[in-house]
Amino acid sequence: MPTALITGASSGLGEQFAYALGREHYDLVLAARREDRLAAVAGRARTMGAGAVRTIRADLAQRETPGALHGQLATDGVQVDYLVNNAGFGTSGRFHLLPLARELEQIELNATSLLAMTRLFLPAMVERRRGTIINVASTAAFQPTPYLATYGATKAFVLSLTEAVAAELRGTGVAVMALCPGPVHTEFQKVLNIERTRLPSFVFIEAERVVNEAIAAAASGRSLCVAGAINNVLMIASKLAPRGLAARISSTLLRPSSVEDR
């Protein structure tokens, strides 16, 4: 039975990936910081058809964690066939007022850790000439994102890295894809404060739908999946608009209601 490793699996998209791949009878390795939430997700994934389910408490914002996780699984003889790099978080507000340590932690988790996980698990997939990696980016990757400056920058990195690696791997049998959802109804959006912006409600999409679209897109060999028809239209529009104009529009839409003028 193939094995899927999902980071950030305790909630949101990571949780839904666990259920979706569980329904396809994957063995699962679920990694996140919250052990109680992981245990609940693992239990439900088993009822949906997952094979062996293993949970690992892991803080991927720590520089040494990807290597330790890879080494632990290698030692235990676990072959990862499907990797979902989903762990991440965002901050919102005026960049010059946000705590520097938290911004650097965001870069470590969203970008550095994702790069390390991809680099560590990819060689074995290439050697076997099969495997799938989904790196969770965002539609924030396509234009500047005022009030989400660091978050958008990390997702632009994820998108660029993933598309470049995917191009290198053509013909190897390994699929590497960037998933770019727009706003999703998850706990993540509440933490990011997205739900208190001027974004219209119709751009929000359900996490289960995002995951189903992503799995289908990766299976078809695509290197990019923008979930939802409306988000595809908005992505194309953002690419066509001058970057200065795109930044001004984003500034209006993404400004949280809690942000004061100063």
Main attributes?
Rossmann fold; seven-stranded parallel beta sheet; 7 strands; 14% strand
DSSP helix fraction: 40-55%
Q: Which class in CATH terms? A: Alpha Beta
The total of helices stands at 9
Mass-distribution shape: globular
What does this structure look like?
The chain has 262 residues and is of the alpha/beta class. It has one domain (3-254): Rossmann fold, CATH 3.40.50.720. It is 49% helix and 14% strand. A seven-stranded parallel β-sheet has the order 3-2-1-4-5-6-7, with helices on both faces. Helix 1 (12-23) packs parallel to helix 2. The radius of gyration is 18 Å and the shape is globular. The N and C termini lie far apart (57 Å). The relative contact order is 0.13.
Task: Please render the helix and strand layout as text.
Elements: E1 3-7, H1 12-23, E2 27-32, H2 35-47, E3 53-57, H3 65-75, E4 82-85, H4 100-128, E5 131-136, H5 149-168, E6 174-180, H6 187-192, H7 207-219, E7 224-226, H8 229-240, H9 243-254
Parallel strand pairs: 1-2, 1-4, 2-3, 4-5, 5-6, 6-7
Quick structural summary:
With 262 residues, the protein is of the alpha/beta class. The chain has helices spanning 12-23, 35-47, 65-75, 100-128, 149-168, 187-192, 207-219, 229-240, 243-254; strands at residues 3-7, 27-32, 53-57, 82-85, 131-136, 174-180, 224-226. A seven-stranded parallel sheet has the order 3-2-1-4-5-6-7, sandwiched between helices.
